[in-house]
Amino acid sequence: MSRGLIDWLPRLVARVPTKVHAKLLAAFLTIVVLLIAVGAVGLRALNESNRRAAELVGLQRKIAAYRQLQHDTTAQLYSVASALLVHDDRTLDATLRQLNQFGYDLDRLQFVAKDEVELLGQVRTDYDQFIQVVSQAIELIRKGKIAEGNQLQIAQANPLADRLERVMNQLVNRAEADMVASIEATDAAYTHSQRFVIGFAVISITLALVLGYAISWSIVGPVQEMGTRFKQLASGDFSQRIEISNRDELGNLAINLNRMSHELAQLYQEIEEKNAQLTSANKHKSDFLARVSHDLRTPLNSIIGFTRIVLRRMEGQLPSLQKENLQKVLISSEHLLNLINELLDLAKIDAGKMEVVADTFRVEDVINMTTATIEPLLKDGRVQLVKDIAANLPSVRTDRDKLKQVLFNLLSNAAKFTEQGEIRVSAARENGILKLAVSDTGIGMKPESLEHIFEEFQQAEKTTASQYGGTGLGLAIVKKFINLMGGEIVVASEVGKGSQFTITLPMELKQ
């Protein structure tokens, strides 16, 4: 079968304007019809074989009857010849009775040998003449005319007997010839039936396979094409289209797939344009923040520096009210400077300009440095800072400053929202990964708030912001820094029982 025909059959089935269910049902019904046809042809061949077997049995019976008749005829003729030599009345009477009895056997034979009516008629005629001749010979012998009786036997009875034997042999030979011919015809019919049944079965199987191939590939082919198209869509190729000739559900699915591909291409183009706009906006935002931060940090640093100098040099000379006001100026300035630095960090991360500098250091040193900075922020006497660092913790290779900033932000939050209890920072190595955890016994958060706390300018509760302050940038920066270092951060919290932030980082940063 040529390749063109192989491809043409599925396309022909695909173009049939009906549902896949109807096509499959038609294919199954066709196969069932072929199976029934094969069974019918097989039954026909069996019936023919059975008929010929019955004919052979009939021929066997006929041959057996002919041979029996031949044997009986020979015996009768021998008995008659012997009786005519004895010249005894009782023997002669018995011979006549046997001859008449043999006539009944000929009558029964007519029901078996219906095809040899002419020969049987000749046998009947010759036998009747033979009985008449023998009866005349017996009458002559009884009258004492033995010579005339013997002469009659020799002249007429013996030729009739010989002719009867020849006819009987002819009957047997013809029956045997019919038997041989029937056997040969049976063999030929068996060979013909065998070839016919095998040929019909092969044709039926071929049709079933062709039909199954056409039906299956009219379905599998389009499915494979659509699967390939889905992979192209997943890889971002929206330019291709699939051409499927099916006029069924698969054809409708292909049309919808092409439509979806076209719509995705348009949507992707819109997204690309918006991304380009956002990239441009982020760049402008970063440039703006960089310029503004420079313009703001310079006077802020000056304000902070001068305020510290005044407070240090005028210690004990300033009135308490002025000292308190100067301290408020210092706190507000430092808070504003920290906010500017956080905004600048976010802008750098969004613009992709935030660099990660890997360095080898001991985690314990970073924890000690950060906790020392946080300790002044703790509520005096009511909150205890606990460090739980695993013994023999190996050095790590990652960005030291970013890890310090992450711990500082987490500890600052813990100190802000913990009125009493403890703040615990722990570090250990598990399965080749650095695991850091910062937990507290503070106010905690509701479950629905945990989904948004790592977003920019988001806080757990509005009341929290008004009571404790903050811009909602600290945890957003923590999340972005952890991601830049190839790690992850998760949070668990319960209202009134505190929170725990768990960080996992690779022991060596892959750049």
What does it look like?
The two termini are 59 Å apart. The chain is of the alpha+beta class. The strands form 2 sheets. A 5-stranded mixed beta sheet has the order 2-4-5-7-6, covered by helices on one side. A two-stranded antiparallel ribbon has the order 1-3. Helix content is 71%, strand content 9%. It has 3 domains: 3-223, Four Helix Bundle (Hemerythrin (Met), subunit A) (Up-down Bundle), CATH 1.20.120.30; 250-346, Helix Hairpins, CATH 1.10.287; 355-506, Histidine kinase-like ATPase, C-terminal domain (Heat Shock Protein 90, 2-Layer Sandwich). Strand 4 (421-430) and strand 5 form a beta hairpin. The protein has helices spanning 3-14, 20-86, 89-112, 117-142, 146-234, 249-313, 320-350, 363-374, 400-417, 462-468, 474-484, and strands spanning 359-361, 383-389, 396-398, 421-430, 433-440, 488-494, 498-506.
Layout of SSEs?
Blueprint: H1 3-14, H2 20-86, H3 89-112, H4 117-142, H5 146-234, H6 249-313, H7 320-350, E1 359-361, H8 363-374, E2 383-389, E3 396-398, H9 400-417, E4 421-430, E5 433-440, H10 462-468, H11 474-484, E6 488-494, E7 498-506
Parallel strand pairs: 2-4
Antiparallel strand pairs: 1-3, 4-5, 5-7, 6-7
Sketch the major β-sheet.
Answer: 5 strands, mixed
Helix-residue proportion? over 70%
What are the low-pLDDT stretches, counting only 5+ consecutive residues below 50? 465-469
Mean pLDDT: 75
- Global outline: rod-shaped
